[in-house]
Amino acid sequence: MTPQQPLRLVSDAEPDAEPPGDTDPRSVPPPAGPIRAAPSAEPSGSAEPSGSAERSGSAEAAGSAEPSGEPGPAARGEPAEAGAPAGSAEPGPEPAGDLAPAGRVVWRVAGTAVTLLAVLALGFAANLLVLGALRHNRDQQTSYAEFRYALANGLAPVGQLDQNGKLYPPGTPVALLVIPQIGLTEVVLEGTSAGVLRGGPGHLHETPLPGQAGVSVIMGRRSAYGGPFRHLDELRTGDTFTVTTGQGEQTYRVTAPRRAGDPQPAPPADGQGRLTLTTTDGSSLLPNGVLRVDADLTSDVQPAPARVADRIGTPPAERPMGTDRSVWVPLVFWAQGLLLAAVAVTWARWRWGRWQAWIVGVPVLAALGLAVADQAAGLLPNLI
Predict the structure, then answer these.
(1) What pTM was estimated for this model as a whole?
(2) What is the CA angle 87-91-94, rounded to 5?
(3) Which helix (H) or strand (E) covers residue 251, if one does?
(4) To pair with 31 at 20 to 30 A between CA atoms, which of 66, 155, 219, 378?
(5) pLDDT tens for residues 176-221?
(6) Are 333 and 372 in contact (CB under 8 A)?
(7) 3-state SS assignment for residue 294
(8) What per-residue confidence (pLDDT) applies to 37?
């Protein structure tokens, strides 16, 4: 049985030649005359089911198959396959919608990192300049009440050891410093580490107390945590001030300020006392050295009990511009808490929404950021 030629639908008004292959079937006008069956001019290796009739309005004869390597119906200008929407073209790539999951993760990680940096920066600045000043004022009020009680009951320190023969713990009030020329009235605490100097000026424990023979040293911050010594460079030779201890009120007269490179004065003579006030020199937050103001004792020298700290020495954290490395452990723990909180807020933003997550997360992030900043401030030089 001789295979029949496949049929295709043509119009009486349609020319025998096929339209160019690059012609869009959607742009070809409908045939003007009746549709009739005509033998196809193209060779076909597939058989057409016999007895197929003309289908009015059909796009293609049923069961026809294109041979391998032949251009498709769209390239020959023929209608699309049955079942496909009229005028549809080959499916292209899907339009890009939201970011891919990997892209969203990258943006969320970047947002979390920026949030952490912003919280740390704001917390650090607020802790040093605003909240630190409030903390300093509160600590001074508490220390003043404690020192006044000790003076009234004869319990104020007059040496390095307390009634039980133990060294006074860091932060114990030991004196009241009053310098009217710069408007300073501060309770002096025992110790000069960064933590102690947050509450006010500190007495270097290996030196005698003010009013006793020898050189006493009091150190204070210039800018952070209230900056009690920020106007220390305004003192001039001949200015007088007082220091009250458990042995009474002691009077000093300023001899000269000293900076890096200036000659160091000779030690005081036996039975004489001197007080050295110490803070930073240069810019408030970017110091370039240490400023010292020496003052000679003009009142009577007070007796001093036996000393023990001279044999111990001064830890590096309590020397001028020293840093407290013991804060690393709590700093790491607080930083881990802040990181976990930031991750939780990022997850909550994805699950709950932006505003709900921020309402819950901002107070938590602020509290943890301040805690981290407070610990990180211990790594700064103790006189800033």
Answers:
(1) 0.69
(2) 130
(3) strand 248-258
(4) 66
(5) 999 999 999 999 999 999 999 999 999 998 899 999 999 999 999 9
(6) no
(7) strand
(8) 46
Structure tokens at 367: 């509290």
Q: Residue type at 266? A: A
What is d(CA 270, CA 278) in angstroms, rounded to the nearest whole number? 23
pLDDT at 27 over 90: no
Inter-CA distances, 154 with 151, 205, 246, 340, Å: 5, 21, 7, 51
Q: Is the dihedral of CA 197, 201, 204, 205 positive or negative?
A: negative
Which among 73, 313, 307, 290 has a CA at the least distance from the CA of 208? 307
**Looking up tokens 């690393």, which residue turns up?**
328
Alpha helix ranges (H) inside the chain = 73-76, 101-126, 132-152, 328-351, 354-376
Return d(Cα 99, Cα 378) in angstroms, integer. 43
Cα→Cα distances 323→99, 375, 384, Å: 47, 12, 11
Question: pLDDT of 280-298, one tens digit each?
Answer: 998 888 898 999 999 999 9
Amino acid at 325: R
